[in-house]
Request: fold
Amino acid sequence: MSAYLTKLNTLRTTQILDIKDESPTTKTYTLQDDLCAKANPGQFLMLWIPGVDEIPLSILNATDGIVQFSVKAVGDATRHLHSMKTKDTLGIRGPFGNNFTETRGKVLLIGGGTGTAPLLFLGKRLAPKVDRLSYVVGAKTKNELLYLNDLDALCTEETAVATTEDGSYGLQCLATEPLDKMMVKGKFNMVYACGPERMIRKVFDLAEQRQIPMEASLERLMRCGIGLCGSCAIGKYRVCHDGPVFKMAQLGEVKDELGYSKLGFDGSRIDV
Amino acid sequence: MSSNLLTTNMPGLKLRNPTALASGILGYTVETLQLIAQNGAGAVVTKSIGAEPNAGYANPTVVQADSGLINAMGLPNPGIGDYSEEIRYAKTVLQVPLIVSVFGYAAEDYAEVAKKAIEAGADAVELNVSCPHVRLTGSEIGQNPKLLDEVISKVKTEAKKPVIVKLSPNVTNIVDLAKVAVKAGADILTAVNTVRAMAIDTETQMPVLSNIRGGLSGPAIKPIALRCVYDIFEALPETPIFGCGGITNWRDAVEFLLAGASAVQVGTALATKDPKVFEDINKGIQTYLKRKGYRRVKDIVGLSHQT
Reply:
């Protein structure tokens, strides 16, 4: 067995160092873990909530022995995690999967909800190196817009767009709404997307139409995290092993599923 | 790989080479099975399919051990109703035999699922009577000679294709169960399923797997699986065997062939190696056969028993 993967996949238990409220439903956790601290933007980790569940999470930040991720309370596991306190023990495996490719020139980040986390991680790496960094982030309402201050620090006012469905902040529309115009005007060298899959599908269709290269990080039900169980299959790809970041051409290969269907816990096809 | 050197015949199954994807790895979708076939597997075995849809256990379902993995997935599967469609589709795409793994809670379940799988186009069924972590099925059947006989006999009356029986290593003497299986009509045996195991975390002082107990696979169990194949071949030299357990490279595969396996199944190796592992194993076997002057895989099956 490859010694490296065996090491990454070995479960480590570690105490929660810090918990920060990002929004009424989302918290950011800081853990000490040497392996995940070396993660690149786009990679994910498997988090064991002892006695409850183990879930995949995108990495928000990794540096100096520390790893951070954001969690929205949506189900039993995430609600249980939200009830935990600093110094409580969690288990961690990873980092797994590939990462976003770093490009130069003009780049656009488009994120929805907690899907913005890996894009912020990426944006921090890219900001000093690219010619122009733009972002679009969307949420249902102002309270749910994540990382606005951090994102604003990466770009100028003209290249930052926030959208809310209820109009409580920024433009009142979906994050994909202002995209087409931006793509035409922005002459982007690369679009990076992460968030709800229907949003990613929309971004893909637009990017394909405008022939702008893109990469998207996909989410699927995950069990093993190491490419064996098949739970996260999309087309011929395993999201945990071949992704979670997919390039334009790969997204094109899984068009029939992208934005439409995924596998459920019993392996049958369900809506995304 | 289409070399004649590697062609392997088992009852009712003509394999282009002696490697197959083991059950439980990928196998929900045709695309993932096709990926494995395109990377050189001589056959593919699906996830274990039951009569009804089953969501399996909560995570953690897989935990890393020193030289292998412990898993307790809980037999997640969409049920033969839905899966029949996948089998039909698979048969229009796959160029290699499709073996459908089948489990149930009684002989009737096994027979019903096997029958439907074959009707949908399965080239063979592999009876999972050896999953070590789900109650009232798997090894609870495979460890009990009477139940094992009942299940296989019942399936044989319904199945018009080869019936493979996957045995558990978690028994006092695997040969006794192998004999029961063959007497009941098993055409081929697969040896072995995972070894019952568990993991405990010292900080939380808790078992890691949600199901507590699971099955160990990977290099850790290779010597055990190899011995099981050797024992079965010694007692039942006429019965074809799929060797399974920790096979990661061609040398492992050749060891199993020498022990008495006619072909091998590969699973856990896919965690650390590309699907190309099948092609690599086959190339290695071919080079070995040529180097040693053999003309077909069959020539070395069980050869270690001569000494």
